[in-house]
Write a structure and sequence with these properties.
The chain has 685 residues and is an alpha/beta fold. It contains 24 helices and twelve strands. It is 62% helix and 9% strand. Helix 2 runs antiparallel to helix 14.
Length: 685
């Protein structure tokens, strides 16, 4: 289902409907504003202007630009409105005749809230006991705070400080005193802060001085115990010594390995019985080389003499003897060289061991020196650190003392307050305009608020959209009296046939006749969701208009709980539908106010109405009446209170639900329709 578009006229309709609520709120609001405006005591506001600037050391950036710090200025505004500043105002003016006289006459100038807050325990920052003077001081301080306002001027560092009072001279006096009290409080705050900083720094300087002295004493004692001054010279020599010993060790190892290789070759040749002079180290010896040459020459001579003279020649014998002597000399020289190699090897090995031992000792010495210097450097670092911290704190303390001596407050009193001539409030014209606007807007909002929470059936379009069933007609609300005469809604179509109410019921008759495309419904059930919603009036008036045009109509009162039709027409109710259904043969059809209208009253109220209406006898009664009458109308009990209507709705051609505007809720109608649909009722609308 498409949602209906909301038009501006819908809002005007709501305002017209709820005009009583809106107008009541408007006139009450306007009356209260007028009462307040013309009875309130005039209040005067005195203003003073201050220039508040942040200290340059905190407000200049590294590029030279001034930085706006909103937190700084917000803090200053809070200080202006703080209790310490207000107490200073009180202390400055407590002997002033105007000040004391004013607060004695009107101690609660700040309003009831300030009075209560000042007098309640814990209303101030501290408990000042039951002393009357202290209580008076607290109340006046709270009143001063209540009437102070601080307003910074846009795009400037100027601040307007105002005080509101019923006495214009007092307003000027208090606000000027407040400005001076604020400047004095700022100065005291900064002085107190500097003194606290100096106190802390002085303690830290003493503490760091002691640390420095202790660390220097420790360093000196360690240096003396470990001969650090001599070690500083030695630590420069040891690395060079280690390098030289490492180089010597490498050379010694190389030499020892060379001699060891030569010695091993000599031994292997000896073991194999080979000549040793073939070795380069031996062959290169000058004596061995000379003897070797002489041996070769002797061997050549013997060869020559052997060929020339024979073996027994004296020259031959002499030459052999000389050769033997030469060979012996050569072997002796070779033995000397071998011995020399052995001696050199032993010397090289011994030298290698000595160098290795010296290297190890030097490394141990270097390690020991390093360990001492690690501790020494640690102690020296502590001394340097403590000295730097001590000097830094000392410098800051001197700087703080200089700043304390030249302490200034960056607040300037630009303009002192003058005695105000005209009251600040009440502003009569403005109050009336505001009251008028609030009354109109508040009244409209209240009207829409009531409308929003009103979930009752109202306009026909809303009902069709929200319930999903057609609206057959609407009947305006009838005033019970007209020109002093009582009016009967239940017979309005006969008593006032030309009225709009009669026309409403005639329109309803037409809508019912056209509600079914196949045929006109002959049996109609009129019901509602709850009592006093107009179902009986609708049933009676509908029966009357149908009797005027359709033909013979029978109106049956099936409300066996609270029947009313017999009362409306002034008929006896001793016999009726209930007596017929329980077996009585008495005549139950009665004549109505018009020839075409007959009426069956309810009869005495039975204990089991639902069972009677659902009986076979009622079905036969209904069938018989359908044959005798053109239309049969049943007035039944409300759907949500009893089940009688649900039972009856199964027998009739159509059910009509009556809802009272601004009383019957949509939720109730939905629930009733759901119950009727569950039993198969044909709800016409």
């Amino acid at each position: 289902m498409q949602q209906q578009e909301i038009h501006l006229r819908d809002y005007f309709r709501i305002l017209r409907k709820r005009r009583h609520v809106a107008l009541t709120f408007f006139f009450i609001t306007l009356a209260l504003v007028i009462l307040f405006t013309f009875t309130a005591s005039p209040l005067y506001q005195a203003d003073t202007r201050l220039l508040i600037e942040k200290s340059e050391q905190y407000s200049i950036t590294e590029y030279g630009f001034t930085v706006y710090d909103p937190e700084f200025y917000s803090t200053q505004y809070k200080i202006i409105k703080s209790r310490p500043v207000a107490r200073k105002v009180y202390d400055s003016l407590k002997d002033n005749e105007l000040f004391i006289k004013h607060f004695e006459e009107s101690p609660g100038e700040g309003g009831l809230a300030a009075m209560i807050k000042g007098l309640l325990p814990g209303g101030g920052p501290e408990d000042e006991g039951a002393d009357p003077e202290a209580a008076k001081r607290k109340l006046i301080v709270e009143t001063i705070l209540e009437n102070i306002s601080v307003n910074p001027e846009v795009d400037t560092r100027l601040v307007t400080v105002s005080y509101l009072s019923g006495n214009p001279d007092l307003a000027r006096l208090v606000v000027n005193t407040l400005a001076n009290a604020y400047i004095e409080a700022l100065f005291e705050l900064r002085m107190d802060s500097s003194q606290r900083a100096l106190q802390w720094m002085s303690g830290k300087v003493d503490e760091e001085r002691k640390k420095l002295d202790d660390s220097e004493s420790g360093l000196q004692a360690y240096m003396e115990a470990n001969d650090i001054i001599t070690l500083e010279d030695r630590i420069a020599i040891v690395p060079q010594k280690l390098l030289e010993l490492s180089t010597q060790l490498t050379r010694s190892e190389t030499r020892r390995k060379e001699l060891e290789t030569l010695r091993n070759k000599i031994r292997s040749l000896k073991a194999a019985g080979k000549d040793l002079d073939s070795l380069p180290a031996i062959a290169s010896d000058k004596t061995v080389a000379s003897l070797r040459g002489q041996v070769l020459k002797g061997e050549q001579r013997i060869t020559e003499f052997s060929k020339k003279y024979g073996q027994r020649h004296p020259l031959m014998i002499e030459s052999v003897g000389d050769l033997r002597v030469l060979r012996e000399k050569k072997e002796q020289e070779i033995g000397r060289v071998v011995k020399s190699v052995e001696n050199e090897y032993d010397l090289a090995l011994s030298n290698e061991h000595n160098i290795r031992r010296l290297l190890s000792e030097t490394k141990l010495e270097a390690h020991g020196i390093n360990e001492k210097f690690v501790k020494y450097n640690s102690l020296k670092r502590d001394v340097d650190t403590n000295r730097k911290l001590f000097e830094s704190l000392l410098q800051k303390m001197h700087k703080e003392r200089i700043e304390e001596e030249g302490q200034t407050v960056n607040v300037m009193l630009v303009e002192t307050a003058e005695t105000p001539t005209y009251p600040e409030s009440p502003k009569k014209a403005l109050n009336l305009i505001i009251g008028f606007i609030i009354g109109i807007l508040g009244g409209a909002m209240l009207a829409f608020f009531f409308e929003y929470f009103d979930n009752t059936v109202k306009a026909a379009e809303d009902a069709e959209e929200k319930l999903g069933v057609p609206v057959l007609g609407m009947v305006s609300q009838l005033k019970r009296e007209k020109k002093g005469q009582e009016r009967h809604i239940e017979r309005i179509v006969t008593e006032e046939p030309k009225s709009s109410f009669a026309e409403n019921y005639k329109a309803l008759r037409t809508a019912i006749m056209l509600s079914s495309a196949e045929s006109t419904p002959k049996t109609l059930l009129i019901t509602s969701m709850g009592p006093a919603e107009g179902k009986t009036a609708t049933a009676v008036n509908l029966a009357l208009v149908l009797a005027q045009s359709v033909g013979k109509v029978l109106l049956v009162d099936t409300d066996l709980r609270k029947p009313r039709i017999h009362t409306i027409f002034g008929l006896s109710n001793k016999s009726g539908l209930s007596t017929y259904l329980v077996g009585s043969n008495a005549k139950i059809i009665k004549e109505g106010p018009s020839p075409n209208l007959n009426i069956v009253t309810s009869g005495p109220i039975p204990p089991n109405s639902s069972e009677l209406l659902g009986s076979e006898k009622f079905a036969r009664f209904l069938s018989s009446m359908q044959e005798r009458y053109d239309v049969v109308i049943f007035d039944s009990p409300p759907v949500l209170t009893v089940t009688d209507s649900l039972v009856l709705s199964k027998y009739v051609d159509g059910t009509i639900v009556v809802a009272r505007a601004a009383k019957t809720s949509y939720e109730a109608v939905r629930k009733g329709l759901r119950q009727l649909n569950d039993v198969g009722s044909n709800v016409l609308g």
